[in-house]
Design goal:
With about 190 residues, the protein is α+β, with helices and mostly antiparallel strands. It contains six helices and six strands, in the order αααββββββααα.
Length: about 190
């Protein structure tokens, strides 16, 4: 016999004497690993969809904020009326008649065509440094916040599908529909 052989035999015996995992322990370990991976995926989904919903809402506010402060905070701004005489594409034009002191009359100003109809006169606020005017009053405020209404509707889909928060999604969708409907009715 080879002298190294007896030394190797006890190590092999020790390995075989160790009790193997029972099937129950193996199932428990597999179940724990599966739960951990599902929890990680769930966490990733919640974080990702939450970020997408937040990004949609921020984009809606950002798009609305380009005209909302001028329409909502009219104190100290040039206010007047515009009689819409010509519409082409996305803009309408007409003469501006001032109502506030310091505001000057203009022969031609532009206003969004969605917010007005040809031949009618509207209360407006002049966007500072331009010849663009924005509708004022309730109709102007609702029209200014219409992009946020669309963002609320989009975010509701993400919240319902990605975050699985159906009540919150219904609140977002209801708010978006109410805002867009009110803007449509008032315009």
């Amino acid at each position: 016999m080879i002298p190294a052989m007896p030394a190797a035999a006890p190590a092999a015996a020790r390995r075989s004497s160790r009790s193997p995992r029972s099937p129950r322990q193996a199932r428990t370990a597999a179940r724990t690993a599966r739960r951990a991976s599902f929890a990680a995926l769930r966490f990733g989904r919640v974080v990702t969809m939450g970020a997408v919903a937040a990004l949609l809402l921020i984009a809606g506010v950002w798009a609305s904020w380009s005209s909302a402060p001028y329409v909502m905070l009219t104190k100290g701004r040039e206010r007047g009326t515009v009689e819409v005489t010509h519409c082409a594409g996305e803009t309408c034009t007409g003469p501006y008649t001032p109502l506030t002191p310091g505001s000057k009359a203009r022969d031609r100003v532009e206003v969004d065509a969605v917010a007005v109809h040809k031949g009618r006169t509207y209360d407006v606020v002049v966007k500072p440094g331009t010849d663009r005017v924005l509708r004022s009053g309730p109709a102007g405020v609702l029209y200014a916040w219409a992009p946020l209404g669309g963002a609320l509707l989009l975010a509701s889909v993400v919240v319902a599908g990605g975050l699985r928060l159906t009540r919150a999604a219904w609140v977002l969708a209801g708010s978006g529909v109410a805002l867009l409907t009110a803007a449509f009715v008032v315009l």
